[in-house]
Amino acid sequence: PLHASRRQQRPGRRRRCSGCRRFPEEAAVRSQQESGKMAHEAPFQLLHSELIHYICKSADSTDSENGRSVTKLENLGFRVGQGLIERLTKDTARFKDELDVMKFICKDFWTCVFKKQIDNLRTNHQGIYVLQDNKFLLLCHLSAGKQYLEHAPKYLAFTCGLVRGALSNMGVKSIVTAEVSVMPACKFQVMIQKV
Amino acid sequence: PLHASRRQQRPGRRRRCSGCRRFPEEAAVRSQQESGKMAHEAPFQLLHSELIHYICKSADSTDSENGRSVTKLENLGFRVGQGLIERLTKDTARFKDELDVMKFICKDFWTCVFKKQIDNLRTNHQGIYVLQDNKFLLLCHLSAGKQYLEHAPKYLAFTCGLVRGALSNMGVKSIVTAEVSVMPACKFQVMIQKV
């Protein structure tokens, strides 16, 4: 009864990795470094999944209930974002301008939480920023394709709040929304609210 | 409005670090490495705090309500522990015996989640193990001393579930409880349930 993982030793069944959803032979290509990284981010990623599970348990329910769950996740993210940015900016210099703040979110902040940088940052220079992550950590455990697209809002709400909370603590009021077309890529749109 | 952290720039007030609760002059002694580590573990730690806040919001309530909150946290931890051990043991060899399993929990598993090993593992060789962590990550943000002792169960329930879930996925059924005498040190007691 003391096997490392009996489930994965059952013969005759081709199992995907529970983390990256690749089959073992593909996954074996992963470098040591990548696998170390994966384990490192796993506690946060799994806790986030269970949080969604906990908050949205009555998920096959009405739209208004789903809406409330998404709002709860967003608010929770907001507070985590506030706490996180306070730690991250403790020793940083002041930021020059709004764009400088957004770059910090795309690099340092994103790396701290999601172990990679944002792949693409675009702006209309009028207060709208679009942050694109081509392989978003919190979508990676869902199958690629369109199968789970309808569940995407649940998996993105926490992060929308996270970004809004971080910006808010840096004195930037914003509205943050997210959009997925093909998993696990997604875009976060930040609309700065001038005060 | 774009300062890194205006709150920390307010003059005339001696502020503790929001992470380790030390004053800046003490905190400055921290090595770069330690501060990098701190940022790394922050998302998980903050998410855990907010989870407690969310689940125990009506916390100044009856004992039975508190009990229910603690059970919810424990169950959530259980599922995270299951998921985590599955990833961590994917490439490991079989475990020799129960003690071997416990050592894996104290080293690899603990390091993955809490960024340090268990400081002391004791056993009566009859199915009881005591894991002692002298500086437990999820208690580090509470003030040391006895001030918050009554809140400790909330902060330990998730981890009790985490250990129970991990062991359960390795075929070891157990009861896990926790005990704090002086923050941020704590002991987890694992009682193996023979089947």
Automatic annotation (TrEMBL), chains A, B:
Predominant location: endoplasmic reticulum
Keyword Endoplasmic reticulum recorded: yes
GO cellular component: cis-Golgi network; endoplasmic reticulum; trans-Golgi network; TRAPP complex
Key words, A-Z: Endoplasmic reticulum, Golgi apparatus, Neurogenesis
The organism's taxonomic lineage, starting at the top: Eukaryota, Metazoa, Chordata, Craniata, Vertebrata
Family: Belongs to the TRAPP small subunits family. BET3 subfamily.
Role according to the record: Component of a transport protein particle (TRAPP) complex that may function in specific stages of inter-organelle traffic. Specifically involved in the early development of neural circuitry, likely by controlling the frequency and amplitude of intracellular calcium transients implicated in the regulation of neuron differentiation and survival.
SUPFAM superfamilies: Ligand-binding domain in the NO signalling and Golgi transport
Key word Cytoplasm present: no
CDD domains in the record: TRAPPC6A_Trs33
Biological processes per GO annotation: endoplasmic reticulum to Golgi vesicle-mediated transport; nervous system development
Localization terms from the record: Endoplasmic reticulum; Golgi apparatus, cis-Golgi network
Protein name per UniProt: Trafficking protein particle complex subunit 6B
InterPro entries membership: NO_sig/Golgi_transp_ligand-bd, TRAPP_component, TRAPPC6/Trs33
Superkingdom, natural source: Eukaryota
Gene3D superfamilies, alphabetized: Trafficking protein particle complex subunit 3
A Pfam family that the UniProt record links to this protein: TRAPP
Species, as recorded: Oryzias javanicus (Javanese ricefish)
Transmembrane segments: none
